[in-house]
Structure formats: C-alpha cells, structure tokens
Amino acid sequence: MENIFSDQLTMLRQKKSLSQEIIAQKLFVSRQSVSKWERGDAEPDIDKLIALADIFGVDLNYLLAGQQSSKELLLKLIAVNKKFQNPVLRGVNLTIYGRDRIALLGSNGSGKSTIVNIIEGTLPTDSGQVEKYFDAKDDLNVMPQENVLIESLRLEEHIVLSASIQRVYSKQIVHDLLEKFQLKAQANIKISHLSGGQKRRLALLLSVIRTSKLLILDEPTVGMDLESIDFFWNYMDHIGGSVLTITHDFNQIDRYFNRVLLLKNGVIWKDETVAKIHSNNQTIEEWYRKYNRNEGEII
Ligand SMILES: Nc1ncnc2c1ncn2[C@@H]1O[C@H](COP(=O)(O)OP(=O)(O)OP(=O)(O)O)[C@@H](O)[C@H]1O
Q: Which of helix, strand or coil describes residue 192?
C-alpha cells in the first residue's frame, strides 16, 4: 500500500495547497510523521487515514489505492461527427467510466487521434455532444502521439517548468520523478540531445506529473526500446484513474486493459470487455484481426 498511498497523500495535499505542517496540526501528529508517510517510510493508523480522507474530501479507497469508483461516469461522446476533406467520424458514441482501462484500436487513419483531440478540446466537432464529468483543466492528462517538448531546455529544467505550470512543483517531486523514470543521468542534458526513447519516456513523465481522473495516451510506446516498454507497462499498473490508450502493442494489451474499442468506418464498431474476449479463447490481437478485416475478406 505504501507507494500508492504516499503518492496519493503528496498529490492530494499539494492539490489542496496544504503544507505538511498544516496536515500535522489537523491530525495532532508531528510534521516529521507526515513527511515519513509521504516518503513511504511509515503508515498512519486507520483513524488518521479516515481523517485524511475527510480533509481531502475523497473516499478511503481513493486515498489508499488511487482508485476511483468504477461506476463514476467520466465522459460521454454522443453522435460525434468530424469531417476534414472526407468524413472521419460519423456518429461516434462512447462512454468512459472511472477505472476503465481502455485500448482504442483501429487502422491507420481511422480517426483515433481525432477522437483524442476532440476529448482534449483542441479540435471542435462538426456536430454531436462531448460531455465531460470532470474538470478538464485539473483532471485530464494527455500524452500526445508527437512529443511536445521544448528542445532548448535541459531535462530537469523541463520537469521543473511543467511541474510549476501544473502547480505541483517541489524539489522532492522532481527528484522522485527523475528516479522513478530512470532519467537521473540525463537531468542536465538538453532535450534536443536526448534519444528518441528517452524523449518518449520524458513525455510520459510530463503527462503524469500530477494524477488525473482520465489519462489519454496516443501510441505511447512507439520509439521505445524493449526495456522502456517494460518500464512503461509496469508504471501503468500504478496509475489510479481511467486510462484510454491508443496502442497496437499486442504483447501487452491482453494484460493491462479491461475494455477494447474498435474504431472502424467512422464509428465505434465494437466495444468489448477483455474478459469476454478471453472467455472465447481469443487474444485481443485475434479479436482485432477478425473484426477489423474488410467485408468479404477471408482470413
Ligand atoms: N487537421 C487535419 N486536417 C486534414 N485532415 C486531417 C487532419 N487531422 C486528421 N486528418 C485526417 O483524418 C483522418 C484520421 O486521422 P487520425 O490522425 O485521427 O487517424 P489515426 O486513426 O489516429 O491514425 P494513425 O493510426 O495513423 O495515427 C486521416 O485521414 C487524416 O489524414
């Protein structure tokens, strides 16, 4: 429990702009105790945990494990249409709940990134509704397909800048992130001099500096070496909110996700639970190939 709880405690305290001192006063403990909890060196008693959940206005599960209620409605796309030169989305309906782990699959050019851009709010729809049941400013993190990095900064400077913009900066956070993402040795290297895989790892780091209700990842592991890919999927196990990922990393897809969407012909052609796919003795790759083939194609 320690790692997730200590991260949650630090994140929630910073979100509420409360110092360790204030938390300590409210709980009648020393500031050192709060500091130990945040470092994962000690755990509070259950009565203190309940009091902490109360102070942050979250339920105990979320404080301990970063898990949202699976029934919480986060997002609804209703009959969304989008056309560029040609129609791309032709009535997309999609609902995302708390704790969903969704893989969004579809051929190149089927409109996956277009959906992400619409959810993010960087692209308007032609028609249809986008209903967000969270504060997009605070509770949506996106790792885009193309790295959005300031090449002239050094790696650590970039983390400091992004953490400051997101109002979660502390020396400790930057130190912890460099350690966690195994980028300490590159801290003083200019972004423009990093390898492609290191840039991708940094892009992931920047998109999870603060926790969020919904994390969207667009082809996150493209350009990563095997070690970084393993690191990425292991790291994802510790993400508490809902995750929507565009990926064709079929080696991992069966393990991490609980729901798979297939975007085809401009609509969500299939929306299936991974449990159901597996209960039919299929891997997700087999399922994807079966349903994404063109009409009449024999496989
Ligand atoms: N800004 C734009 N202007 C014109 N056409 C666009 C624009 N953005 C996307 N498109 C077109 O819309 C279609 C869907 O693009 P999108 O990037 O959403 O697909 P995708 O499923 O994410 O593809 P990939 O798997 O190759 O990343 C493509 O044909 C693309 O050329």
A: helix
**pLDDT for 211-224, tens place per residue?**
889 999 999 988 88
Q: What is the homologous superfamily of the domain 2-65 according to CATH?
A: lambda repressor-like DNA-binding domains (1.10.260.40)
Atom of ligand 1 nearest to the CA of 145: 27
Whether pTM > 0.95 for this model: the answer is no
Phi and psi for 165 in degrees, rounded to 5? -60, -40
What number of other Cβ atoms are within 10 A of residue 295's Cβ?
5
Write out pLDDT tens, residues 52-107: 988 887 777 778 877 666 678 999 999 999 999 999 999 999 999 988 999 999 99
> Would you call 51 exposed, middle or buried from its count of C-beta atoms within 10 A (0-12, 13-18, 19+)?
middle
Q: Ligand 1 in contact with 84 (CB < 6 A)? A: yes
Residue with the smallest CA separation from ligand 1 atom 24 is 108
Domain map of the chain by residue range?
Answer: 2-65
Centre of ligand 1 from the C-alpha of residue 213, in Å = 26
Residue 123 Cα: closest atom of ligand 1: 1
For residue 255, the CA-to-ligand 1 centroid distance in Å is 28
